[in-house]
Design a protein that fits this description.
binds adenosine-5'-diphosphate, alpha/beta, 256 residues, Rossmann fold, 8 strands, binds magnesium ion, 41% helix
Amino acid sequence: MGTPPFTMCITSGKGGVGKTSLAVNLGAALTRTDRKVLIVDGDLGLANVDIFFGLSVDTNILDILANGSDPLACVSFPLDNLGVLPATSGVPEMVALGPGDQDKLGGYLQCLFDHFDLVLIDTAAGIGASVLWFNSFVGDNLVVLTPEPTAITDAYALVKVLSTEHRRHRFEIVVNQVADTEEGARVFHQFQMVAGSFLDVDLNHLGTVVSDPLVGKAVRRQKPFVLASHFGPAAQAVRRIAADLDPRVVTAAASV
Ligand SMILES: Nc1ncnc2c1ncn2[C@@H]1O[C@H](COP(=O)(O)OP(=O)(O)O)[C@@H](O)[C@H]1O
Ligand SMILES: [Mg+2]
């Protein structure tokens, strides 16, 4: 058995805060140090990680669960050293996996993860059963916030449920879509004041990503913005987050 991979959920209370953009670009940035990265699309009902990479996929998580397909055979590689396990879009029964399916999927994922150094799971928003399960399944939890009051309240609700009902007490926080790093620090401080006062949690401000038109452009081009030749402030921020995370990843002995 090799070293277990570093596993982290990228999650949020509110939708549209930038989870998938962060997962895709953080994953791409981490391959620069030769890490073997897997991105799992955990937004089971409205999956779109494949679209961010312009992948055309014909197998996904549903095939593993429904047909017992080999999980590694369901992974697509848009980049050297970066695999994507896609999910389904428009299949409502995937949104809330029951305990039996969770156990089954958990077993399959555990074996799949051993082929990688680092696994990022891009979840759906909210406090649905699958979101909570993915967050309980990984070693680390990253919550994405934006300055919108609704994003902050919904993140509080998610962190509350994860800490009180799922024994998760440490959270990485990335503040996204802000004007500058000062606004990022203010939003983090605001969140910490509330969550830190009322919940038994330890929050770490992992980084701030400013609003950058190159993010939307990269989605339209279906290429990670960290790999674009025209490099903007969001790419710089995500590369910095990747550099901070990288020492926590130990290269696993296993190979893809
Ligand atoms: N830092 C940013 N600057 C500008 N636009 C952003 C930024 N982060 C995300 N977006 C945009 O916000 C929208 C939602 O992002 P997405 O990653 O799909 O969010 P989520 O996965 O949380 O629903 C997309 O249109 C994306 O281009
Ligand atoms: Mg998403």
